Amino acid sequence: MLQFPNKSLNKTVPVPGGVIPASASEQNYASISTTEDFSFNPEKLTEIKFKGTILNVSVNLTPANSNFNFEVQVKLANFKNNGVALDRRISLGTTAIPLADYVATLNDNKFPLEIAVIVKPHNNPITVLPSNVTVSLSFSAIDFQYVKGFFGDQAAINIPAESIDVSLFGSTLNNATVSFAQPKLSFNVSNDYGIPTKVTFNPLEARKKNGLKLPLVITPSSPVSINVPASLGQSAITDVTVNNTKQLIDFAPDQFYYKVSARINEGLTTGINFCADTSKIRVSMKAEIPLYGKASNIVLADTVSIDLSDVKDSNIESGAIKANINNQLPLDAFIQLYLTDDKLVIFDSLFTTAQTAIVKASSVNATGELAAPGLTTNLEIPVPKEKLNKLFDAKNLIIKARLNTTRNANGTQPDVKFKSNYIMKVNFGLRATFKLEADL
User: Which residues of the chain form CATH 2.60.120?
Assistant: First the structure.
């Protein structure tokens, strides 16, 4: 979010002409003290902890004087590492000073700088012509571990689009009609930046793989003012409620897609902002979908292997499947058994269409809860001999069920509830007719 350009400073220390007497100790011959300015705009920084920044310091003497043996002392009193100020001696040429872990205390980007020309010990007098020591300071690759100050009213920053996959039911509901009652959908924005920020979602929508889209209606509406943490290292949460949750869940999206732009310090001229290189804005979504609603044409299928070759030549003439079912679930089921070969190619089904209505749904009261179980009593489904013969040839059975929630007497589907204590008791049996031959 914050990027700072390289900054170069060129300072000149006038060196007076004259004869410097021989000396066994060094001496401060000339110096300047200035206040420098990073001139960041619109940021006005009060503190920055550097990360990988390099300070390159170049020293030149004009005109050159090989007899003038000196060093330049560069002191940045407000740049400290473990409480120790930056204070370096530099000879002619260029020296690179890593600023990693230095903390600079600034006054709206400004900081004090002291430069001194230190004459080294010498045995003979030195004649110095009036000259200049030029000191160039170049702050390059300015980055930070953290930064504080006022970051200015900055134009909106576009953040790359993101998506959240929400294919909750896989392909189970692809051709189903499902409506959930009282679903809740919300998301929260977790913010590490200590900066007043407004986030605009454009777009914020649910999407299906077939290209259909549905916008999310949210409170607070976009742009959303994001809560700010109290101090560096903390996070603040902003809760956002989705108002059209039921419509969205019934839409059965495959993903939520959003693109965000963020504007900081809108309309402000002062303030205390902060952020770290690890600061992030994270968006997470929470969905509460109670098992309460209605559905039709939910299709479930499973495949099981069978091997009835041992009884293929038996004397079974015909058979029937018998069932007694006590069902507390508000779901009916139309069940079909498909016969396949070893390559799962279907070559027949076991039941006629009229025979597939095997499981009856329970009835519910006005609140969608169990009123009476659905009863299937003494159901008998004839299976003729030709079907049995094909069953003996089958290598696999595909069991396919089409489910629908309870219907009222008028054919409408009320919202129904599914509870963990609802059970289904199923008793299946096979009645077979055998051909017996006896010698009398």
Answer: 7-149, 153-290, 294-434
CB contact set of 366 (below 8 Å; sequence gap of 6+) = none
Mean pLDDT, residues 149-176: 77
Tokens 């603040």 correspond to 236
Strands 197-207 and 218-219: unpaired
Length of the chain as a residue count = 440
Percentage of the chain surpassing pLDDT 70?
94
CA dihedral 44, 47, 50, 53 (to 10 degrees): 40
CA distance 85 to 112: 12
What is the distance of C-alpha 29 from the center of its chain?
60
> Mean pLDDT across the stretch 340-348?
92
Please tell me the predicted confidence (pLDDT) of residue 143. Answer: 95
Instruction: State the Cα angle at 243 between 254 and 364, rounded to 5°.
Output: 80
- Return the pLDDT at 287: 82
Q: Which CATH architecture has domain 153-290?
A: Sandwich (2.60)
For residue 440, the model assigns a pLDDT of 52
| Confidence label for 311 from pLDDT (cuts 50, 70 and 90) | low
What is the pTM for the complete model shown? 0.71
What mean pLDDT is reported for the chain? 89
Strands (E), 123-266: 126-128, 131-140, 144-150, 154-165, 177-180, 184-191, 197-207, 213-215, 218-219, 224-226, 236-242, 255-264
CATH T-level fold of 294-434: Jelly Rolls (2.60.120)
3-state secondary structure of 426: strand
Topology given in CATH for the domain delimited by 7-149? Jelly Rolls (2.60.120)
Q: How many Å apart are CA 57 and CA 135, to the nearest integer?
A: 7
